[in-house]
Amino acid sequence: MSDDLLARFRALDTTTVSDALDRLGLTGGCVGIVPINHGTRACGYAFTVRYRPRGPGRGSVGDFLDDVTPAHMVVIDNAGRPTGTVWGDIMTVLAVRKGIAGTVIDGACRDLPRIRELRYPIFTRSFSMITGKDRVEVESVNEPVSIANEHVAPGDIMLADDTGVVRIPRDHATRVLEVAQEIEEAERRILEAIEQGASLREARARFGYHGLQTKR
Asked: Does residue 1 have a pLDDT over 60?
């Protein structure tokens, strides 16, 4: 997959992409994962990490970040745990320095003041002050994970904005992009028609609004 593909998805919003997934009979909305910094957006290939409760030894909670590139979004499956945080200020500073696209966590982060100061795009189920050190450990890296019950494979495209997070399966990315751009154009024309005086009913009917996301 190319940087051009990411750039094209980056120009879209999550609602349009979600509608495109509906049209194609695919799922992807990571419901319940919300932004820490409103007004931030992120798009990148999934670099997946799964955590588990700590075993007898002391496991790592973040050294994988050295292997992440700017084209990636870090996608962390911590099984929705509200405690045992897996992201904080040190990782935020490094992610910003490396130019990493953003982070998605089905679990908790901490150190919100630094995350907000640096405007790093992080999308998470919750936040807490309680560290994950000695509570959880990395189980796998770049293996399939579950984020809000959505299957995410390494290399899937993640798109996140103020509305939430959506996953685009890598094998369907080109088609999802085509449909999303078609939906975006139809909605642009509806808005243009309304601005020119058309009624909502008339504008929606003219450009097929009610069937834009319907599975075909």
From this structure: no
